[in-house]
């Protein structure tokens, strides 16, 4: 029946994911082991430590992104203004943007944009998407962030002036470990899609080669007082 089918599909996805994780973690582990053996045999090249450190960072990055997928320890659901989450995120990433010659321009509108969910997770989504935009714009430029209410949704648009994404690549984005970056994990978007999906939202990507990419995140607008009245009546 349908439930069984869904369960076997979930198992299949979990199996795929486990295989991918194992593979991604085994590579840096193998290389770490190799360097340890070299050091043990008396070769103490200073450059080994830098490489070992970056391999360890890679494993750390994979593990911490995966932790975002499992249920967080503190799972705090609340109503909040998603604009403040965006303000915090932009402050957080400002220095990194400036270092890359990138200006972040925001238009967050005047209305309070109420949403309901786990604030830290939504912040993680914003960080992942804006970081990708920064990483895409190797020649600098502007990232434009626009937020507003459209009917029953809060719509968040994050546009960059990067190289854009080919159609064949667009389809692969969000698949675990899909990355075109030398130091990428290919987990940021998978985690982001999963989080937004858990919040009954969606992410759409619009891209034009040579012009840039827009990530459009939609989340349900949820006004706390209206719902409190509905619940108590
Ligand atoms: P990572 O950033 O570790 O590569 P992500 O899941 O965050 O993993 O992104 C997957 C891939 O999607 C990236 O490697 C890149 O090829 C593509 N991508 C994501 N955002 C953008 C963007 N704004 N412009 C161009 N390519 C992008
Ligand atoms: Mg990323």
Automatic annotation (TrEMBL):
GO terms for cellular component: membrane. The keyword Plastid does not apply. Residues 20-223 form the Histidine kinase domain. GO terms for molecular function: ATP binding; phosphorelay sensor kinase activity. The keyword Electron transport does not apply. Keywords: ATP-binding, Kinase, Membrane, Nucleotide-binding, Phosphoprotein, Transferase, Transmembrane, Transmembrane helix, Two-component regulatory system. One of its GO terms (biological process) is regulation of DNA-templated transcription. This is histidine kinase.
């Amino acid at each position: 029946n349908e439930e069984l089918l869904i369960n076997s599909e979930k198992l299949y996805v979990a199996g795929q994911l486990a295989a991918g994780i194992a593979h991604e973690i085994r590579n840096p582990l193998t290389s770490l082991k190799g360097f340890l053996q070299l050091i043990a045999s008396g070769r103490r090249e200073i450059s080994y430590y830098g490489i070992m450190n970056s391999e360890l960072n890679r494993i750390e990055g994979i593990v911490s992104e995966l932790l975002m997928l499992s249920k967080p320890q503190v799972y705090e659901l609340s109503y909040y203004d998603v604009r403040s989450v965006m303000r915090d995120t932009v402050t957080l990433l400002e220095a990194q943007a400036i270092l890359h010659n990138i200006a972040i321009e925001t238009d967050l509108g005047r209305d309070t944009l109420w949403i309901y969910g786990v604030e830290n997770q939504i912040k993680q989504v914003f960080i992942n998407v804006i970081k990708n935009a920064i990483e895409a714009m190797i020649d600098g430029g502007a990232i434009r962030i626009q937020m507003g209410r459209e009917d029953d949704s809060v719509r968040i648009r994050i546009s960059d002036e990067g190289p854009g994404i080919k159609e064949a690549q667009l389809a692969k984005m969000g698949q675990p470990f899909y990355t075109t970056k030398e130091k990428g994990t290919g987990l940021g978007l998978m985690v982001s899609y999963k989080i937004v999906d858990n919040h009954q939202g969606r992410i759409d990507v619009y891209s034009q080669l040579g012009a840039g990419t827009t990530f459009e995140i939609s989340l349900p607008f949820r006004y706390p007082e209206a719902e409190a009245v509905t619940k108590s009546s």
